[in-house]
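Re: the request from the purification team.
They wanted to know what the chain is likely to look like in 3D before they choose a buffer screen. I agreed to run a prediction and write the result into the notebook, where they can find it.
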Amino acid sequence: MQGFAPDEERYYPIYQAASELRMVCLFHMGTTGIGAGAPGGMGLRLEYCRPILVDRVAADFPQLTIIGAHPGWPWTDELLAMAVHKGNLYIDLSGWAPKYFPPMLVQYVRTLLKDKVLFGTDWPLLTIERWESEFAELNFPAEVVDRIMLRNAVRVLGLEP
């Protein structure tokens, strides 16, 4: 979980360099289990994980590949809107058990965002076995599962030969 507001211009030289080097920037989106229930959340500030804070970065650096880590809850709709609107922004499904995926996320993954979503678990906090089992219960079409589990990452991360 980043401890800074991603849209502060003082970070723009990093984004510019990452864009020029064709690197990927990953930002944590939404709440986190780290610090949950602890006094003061262990000092972690959820405000820095609002997806909308990355919207400006995606707009100002259109060649920069951005991955929003996690489904962005409780701001999932913000993240979905950004992924639809910004061609350079993708979502990974790590850090959230699939049985808790918001219905709107499931609908968008099935349709509009099937090419923009990546597999992720947050192992060892969320085991791969648990993630796969719960994900299977969502009954995504095989073609969508193939994209999420491999093809999208290969394309987004530039792993194609």
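For the purification team: The chain has one domain: 9-156.
Please add any questions underneath this entry.
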